[in-house]
Design goal:
heterotetramer; A: alpha+beta; Ubiquitin-like (UB roll); 5-stranded mixed sheet; 5 strands; globular; B: alpha+beta; Aldehyde Oxidoreductase, domain 3; 4-stranded mixed sheet; 10 strands; 31% helix
């Protein structure tokens, strides 16, 4: 399946875009997604940390990704 | 919920309208936290800040924090306003206001809300210095 | 001292002017406590409050508390405004505002100031109920 | 020596006045003053507590009172 990944803050600069498209297998997990992204964008690994959100909720590494899910890369937040 | 007001806005935040909303005849104590853009970070002059938000999730996370405040303390109203966009030194990125019958709850909930907001709400701040720009907290 | 503003007044307190005074380009966090006259005490409707102060000593004690806040925490400005006279439900008897480079100091100092004010500053409050008036805390 | 004592809050009601005059010996202490006042106004003893201020400062029981000192009775405060 093809999924779109939203990027914010420093992740947008690492991707060079606020949205990247990826091809994932149908049973892919957050863990798989992060592995793929880090292969393609090694600077992700230099971040202090980063989370993945699925449909506006923080996701766990084992969570499965479904087609049409809204996926976002959440680098360390710094609001307030 | 009419006891909660969450706003994410690219317009200037207005302290007085926050106070007007939070005050009520039932409350005895109100605690208000106002963040302001400081003119320096670790001694280095700051020119401006840019705030970017993942808007729907930021609002959803702020609503969760407000809900947690109601579960943890006997508070009456909770307000969270956060700016997006470019802010100059002295401008206000965030206002938190909490009303309660007694001040303990208002102080503790207000503190909890700003501390948790800084940990969980997907908003990012880029500081502009004379020699470049830095996404705050991005790198170790 | 231009980092401290102490006011004891029979006129309405103005939150916005307190905020205007406390904000500065050096500060990153401001905590503001606003006391309000609650419409009930232990479930009994309150009609109004009367505040009486031993004025010179009240001002001197408020100055001492502000000074202690500067000694205990790295705060930048401290404001304490207190009303005297008759206040209706919803009116504001007290505003405390503290600015600091970091929010920890602002929160802790603000809390300390209101807690200590309530213990040491010679101001007395008389609550008017439908069936009579009571000086708060006077009797065991 | 004759001293004037200011009264506030509930103390003003107990004294029936915001100022009462007392005759004290020259070496009188706060302790002596409180004893005299409680003799004359027994309802003072029903208060949760009360302090005496001398020249706008809280005084200790052993402090000596001097002529022209500004003395005030401070019942439990309840500002804020």
């Amino acid at each position: 399946m093809k999924i779109n990944v939203l990027a914010f803050g420093v992740a947008k600069e690492i991707f060079g875009s606020s949205l990247v498209s990826l091809e994932l297998t149908n049973d892919a997990t957050i863990y798989n997604l992060k592995y793929l992204l880090e292969q393609q964008y090694p600077r992700l690994k230099q971040l202090a940390s980063y989370m993945v959100a699925v449909n506006n909720e923080y996701a766990l590494p084992g969570d499965t990704i479904h087609e049409r899910d809204e996926i976002a890369i959440i680098p360390p937040v710094s609001g307030g | 919920m009419n006891n909660t007001q969450i706003v994410l806005s690219s317009e200037s935040l207005n302290v007085q309208s926050c106070i007007d909303w939070i005050m009520s005849p039932e409350s005895g104590g109100i605690d208000v936290f106002i963040g302001t853009v400081r003119n320096a970070t670790k001694g280095k002059p700051v020119l401006k800040l840019d705030f970017e938000a993942y808007e729907p999730m930021a609002i959803s996370e702020m609503e969760k924090i407000a809900q947690q405040a109601f579960e943890k303390w006997p508070v009456q109203k909770v307000l969270i306003h956060h700016r997006t966009g470019t802010l100059q030194v002295g401008e206000v990125p965030v206002i938190i206001a909490v009303s309660a019958a007694h001040r303990d709850a208002a102080f503790e909930a207000c503190r909890y809300i700003i501390d948790t907001l800084k940990q969980t709400v997907p908003i990012w701040k880029k500081e502009a210095f004379e020699d470049g720009e830095v996404w705050v907290a991005a790198h170790p």
